[in-house]
Amino acid sequence: MVAIYMLIVAMVGGFGALNGRYAGGRYVVLTVCTLVVIGIFGFLRLKRWGWALLTGGCLSLCLWIMYMSHAMHNPGLLIMAGLNLCLFLYLIRTEVRERLR
Predict the structure, then answer these.
(1) What pTM value is reported for the model?
(2) Residue 33 CB: number of other CB atoms within 10 A?
(3) CA distance linking residue 58 with residue 48, whole number of Å
(4) Could you say which DSSP state residue 100 is in?
């Protein structure tokens, strides 16, 4: 379920970057989305590097949403940041890490 959610988020971010929604950081967003998609496929194969990329992408997305919430003065975005934080906390559990190769 985490992989499906992060795949949808990465696809929306990637298409947004390709359509010019992120004028200043277009290539940064594309790079992060690409790394998250690569991490998703590694995570689905239970590889440690996939888990690391997915965990880093989940945390960076949470921090970016918190920053955007503060910059835009929109506290409603904190709900999405909280969801991403919950997914990050799920991914760093010992039971999840023990299943990886």
Answers:
(1) 0.87
(2) 22
(3) 15
(4) -
Q: What DSSP string describes 50-83?
A: HHHHHHHHHHHHHHHHHHHHHHHT-TTHHHHHHH
Contacts of 2 (CB under 8 A, 6+ apart): 43, 54, 58, 87, 90, 91
Distance between CA 88 and CA 6 in Å, rounded?
Answer: 11
Residue 26, amino acid: R
Q: For residue 42, what are its two tokens?
A: 């590694």
The whole-angstrom separation of Cα 73 and Cα 57 is 24
Task: Judge contact between 85 and 66, C-beta under 8 A.
Answer: no
CB 3 within 8 A of CB 42: no
Tokens 């909280």 found at: 82
* Length of the chain measured in residues: 101
Q: What is the pLDDT of residues 38-91, one digit of tens each?
A: 999 999 999 999 999 999 999 999 998 999 899 999 999 999 999 999 999 999
